[in-house]
Amino acid sequence: MVFFSGMSQCPGIMDLARLYQTEFVRSARAVGVLWAVCTLCLAIVQVVILLQPSWIGTSDTPVLQAAPVLPKGTIGLFEVCMETEWPIPDCRGGVSSLSPLPCFQSVAVLVGVSLWAVWTSVLCLCLFRFCSAVTVYKICAWLQLTAGFCLALACLLFPDSWESPEMRALCGDSVGSFSLGNCSVHWTFILAVLGVLDCSILATLAFVLANRQDALLPPNSHDVTSGLLMTA
Fold first, then answer.
1. Looking at the DSSP assignment, which residues form a beta bridge with residue 92?
2. Any stretches that span the bilayer, and where are they (predicted)?
3. Domain span at 26
4. What's 181's domain CATH number?
5. Lowest-pLDDT range, 37-46, 80-89, 141-150, 172-181?
6. CB–CB of 95/102 below 8 Å?
7. Segment 143-158, tens digit of pLDDT
8. How many Å apart are CA 231 and CA 221, to the nearest integer?
9. DSSP output for the chain
10. CA–CA distance from 192 to each of 43, 87, 165 (Å)?
11. For position 143, what pLDDT does the model report?
12. Does residue 209 lie within any of the structural domains?
């Protein structure tokens, strides 16, 4: 009687296990889709960080009357833009020349490597159709860690490159390493700092999703049934 009682309870437990498995798979897939969308957004943000000439800009703080009048504008990794009487600023340089400003060459290279790593992780999303999810998540996680490390190193080296002719022409003679003079950091540099945080979060989430893939395997019904019979 106890044996048949255990057998009669087994289908109910198996159904509960299948229901739990289904909900777990749906939640994991939803988090995976969110992670993929955020990865694509991070790749777009990396392009903006590399191209926008708004890393540094002149501040609106008043200067002494005896001080020379400095031009207003912004500076990026590849070009310097000066404000004019027209709505369109006068920009010198550009990404089309593939030649960053001499003072920001190392920073531009690091941002470029970070950009490559993030876009490679985006392309690796196509591997879900050919490789196991664990492998794809781990590859993307290491690529995103590499991107975050390079971007963080670029943000640390950027203030050390402020003592340059381009920066002196825009920010005055008081500019130097880690001293902006008449300028201030603009939104692109802040976006780069936030990009480091995004890379860290997405890489951590990718490692978590990779470690959870083993739990997404369907339960072994034979082992469950045998365990119930032995308990009965």
1. 80
2. 30-51, 107-128, 140-159, 187-210
3. 9-60+69-231
4. 1.20.140.150
5. 80-89
6. no
7. 999 999 999 999 999 9
8. 15
9. -HHHHHHHHHHHHHHHHHHHHHHHHHHHHHHHHHHHHHHHHHHHHHHHHHH-S-SEEE------TTSPPPP-EEE-SSEEEE--SSSS-EEEE-GGGT---GGGHHHHHHHHHHHHHHHHHHHGGGGGGTS-HHHHHHHHHHHHHHHHHHHHHHHHHGGGG--SHHHHHHH-TT-BTTB-TTEEE-HHHHHHHHHHHHHHHHHHHHHHHHHHGGGGSPP-HHHHHHHHHHH-
10. 12, 27, 24
11. 96
12. yes
CA distance 81 to 88: 9
Number of structural domains the chain divides into: 1
Asked if the structure places residue 95 within a domain, the reply is: yes
Write out the two tokens for 45.
């943000």
Q: Is 170 domain-assigned?
A: yes
Mean pLDDT of 116-130: 92
Torsion sign over Cα 13, 19, 24, 25: positive
Report how far apart, in Å, the C-alpha atoms of 128 and of each of 112, 113, 134, 204, 208 are.
26, 24, 9, 19, 17
- Is residue 3 included in any domain, yes or no? no
Q: What pLDDT was estimated at residue 214?
A: 55
- pLDDT value at 138 more than 90: yes
Which burial class, exposed, middle or buried, applies to 80 when counting CB atoms under 10 A from its CB (0-12, 13-18, 19+)? Answer: buried
Q: How far apart are CA 139 and CA 207, in angstroms?
A: 9
Question: For residue 169, what pLDDT is reported?
Answer: 84
